[in-house]
UniProtKB/TrEMBL annotation:
This is Ribosome-recycling factor. Residues 3-110 form the Ribosome recycling factor domain. Signal peptide: none annotated. It comes from Candidatus Shapirobacteria bacterium CG_4_8_14_3_um_filter_35_11. One of its GO terms (molecular function) is ribosomal large subunit binding. One of its GO terms (biological process) is translation. It comes from the Bacteria.
Amino acid sequence: VIIREIANGIAGANIGMTPVVDGNIIRLVLPMMTTEQRDDYIRLLGRKLEGARGMLRDARADFRKKMIDAKNAKTISEDEAKKDEVELQKITDLYMAKLEEMAKKKELEIRS
């Protein structure tokens, strides 16, 4: 009984899936994505990528602020601060590249 109600809820949600009840299992038939839907997902991917870039930049800024505070408080030397800044930028660049790589891979998946 509850399986039927769940299937009816899915059907009534109008989300593009057709539920088929098979005993105690609900199978969902997913239609092929249209070009328009693919484009929408790619735009969404772009927004998510920009959000992730922003979070990475924020993390870099937070660490950089702590590093500057430590330098001003004389807990680290000027040379250590410069070295840490270079290392921080390398790490940031590495993860920015990873984000780009993941986004390109996902875009290829969406397009195919």
